[in-house]
Specification:
The protein has helices spanning 36-53, 98-115, 146-158, 182-188, 203-215, 231-236, 267-281, 299-314, 347-354, 364-367, 389-393, 424-431, 434-443, 451-459, 462-467, and strands spanning 13-16, 22-23, 29-31, 58-60, 68-73, 82-87, 90-95, 118-119, 122-126, 132-138, 163-167, 219-226, 286-290, 319-323, 336-339, 358-361, 409-416. The chain is an alpha/beta fold. Helix 7 runs parallel beside helix 8. It is globular, with a radius of gyration of 23 Å. The chain binds ligand TNX. Ligand TNX binds at residues 138, 255, 292-293, 323, 340, 368, 370, 381, 417, 419.
Length: 482
Amino acid sequence: MPAPIALVPLPRSAEWTAAAPFVVGADTVVVVGPTPAETALGELATELLSRVTGHRLRAVQDPGAGAAIRFRLVPGGRSEAYTLTVGADGVLVEAGDPDGLAHGLSTLRQVLAQTGTELPAGRIEDAPRFAWRGLSVDIARHFFGPAELRRVVELMADHKLNVLHLHLSDDQGWRIDLPSHPELAELSGASAVDGDPGGFLTGGDYRELVAFAAVRGIRVVPEVDVPGHVNAALHAVPELTPDGTAADVYTGIEVGFSKLAADLPATEPFLRDVFRDLAALTPGEYLHIGGDEVLTMEPAEYARLIDMAARAVRDTGKKVVGWQEIATTPLEPGTVVQFWDPREDVTPFVEAARAGAQLLMSPGSKAYLDMQYHEGFPLGLHWAGYVALRDSYDWEPTTLIEGLPADAVIGVEAAVWTETLRTMDDLTTMLLPRLAAVAEVAWTDGDRRDWDDFAGRVAAQAGDWRARGIVFHPAEPVEWPR
Ligand code: TNX
C-alpha cells in the first residue's frame, strides 16, 4: 500500500507497507555510534527531528534503549548510499559512511515534515546517481554571510546536494580574509554591486561553515576567480596592475574587463599565496580557479595564467576545478571542467573530456538559478533565457552536449549569481523550487525521473518551506497547496 509521501529527490526504491507505522513520541530516542562523525550526526538528528515533530528527542549511544531511531554504520556499500527501514518498533538508517547517514536523515525529516510524527512502515533503498551534486553561490556581487550561508546549506542538505561552491571574489568584492594578503578583505571586502553593503568571511567563519556543512554531507569548494573577474584584487593589490596603481572600486554588473597580467612579477606569487591560504582552510579535495569570461586577453597569455593558477593549486595537493573556458588550454587529466555557457563553441569542452578531464554540468539555460523564471520576473537576469521550473528539471546531463563521453560527467551543479539578489528572500525565491529540480537531476537515475510526478512531489514540499519561513516562488504549472 503506497503511503502518500512525496520525496524529492526521488529515491531509488521506496516500498511502504500496510503494517502499523512508527510514531515518534516524547520517549523516542536517537541512537548513534561513538565516533565523532556519528555523535555530530546524532546531535543534528535530534535537532532536526525535534523541530519537525515537536517532541524533544535525545541522542544516546546505548543501543538497548526502547523506541528508537537508529543510525548505524555498516561496512561496505557505495559512498553516500543508505537504507531506511521503518517498523512499528523503530527506525533504522544504515549506510557505509556518515554522508549516507546524513542523507537518510534528510529523507526521514522530509517524511515527518509531511506527516507530523508518523513514519509509515516500509523500506527505502537509495543512492546517488552522480558523485558531485553542487550549488555555486556568488557571495561577491552581493555578500551573504555565515548565518545566511548556513540556511543555504540546510536547503542543500534537504535535497541531498553535497558540494557548496563559494564564488569568493569578483570585480565588485573580495569575500575571504586570507593571512598572506589581509589587504584583500580589508580594502575590497566592503564593496558590492550598486554600492550595497559588502562584507567578508573571516578564516574562522569559513572553517565553521565547512564544519556545519560536513555534518550534513556537504563539502565546500572555494573559488577565487582568475585571471578575469579580478577588479577587487586589483583595487587592493596595486602591484597586480601594469602601472602599479590601484584599480577603482567597481559596483556595476559588466563582466570581462579586468585581468591579471602574466608578465608582472607580482602575479605568480599572488596566485601561489592565495591558493595556499585557501588550501589551508579547506579540507575538501578541490579548489576552483574560475577562468571564465576573460574577454580582452590573448589566448596565449590566458593559457599561461591558467597554468600558473592550476600549478599553484596542484602544489598544495588539491585538484583543480575551472569554468569551461579553461578547456581551451592544456589541462592535466583529472581536472574538473565546469560547463556553463551554451552560447559558446563546445568543441574544446568535448575534447577536454576525451583527454581525461571530468565534466561538471551547469548549463546556464537549465541550472542557472539566477535566470528569471519568466519574462518580467522581478529578480534575475535572462542572458541564458528564462528558466522555468520544468526547464531546470527536464534535461539529461550526459546527452545535453553532443559527443560527450557519458562517463566523463562527474556531476551537476546549480549556480546562483547575485547581481540582482540582495536578501535571503531574494536568494530563496530564485532557489526554490528550482534547486529541488536540479537536485533530482543530480541524484535520481534518468529513467526514474518524470516531470508530472515531480510536479506533484515538489508541491508537497511547500508546507515544510512555509513552516520554516522560507520564501519560494510558486512556479507554474505546479498546483501549489494553499
Ligand atoms: C556569467 S557563469 C558569469 C558570471 C555572471 C553570470 C550571471 C560564469 C562562469 N560567469 O560572472 O554572474 O553569468 O548569470
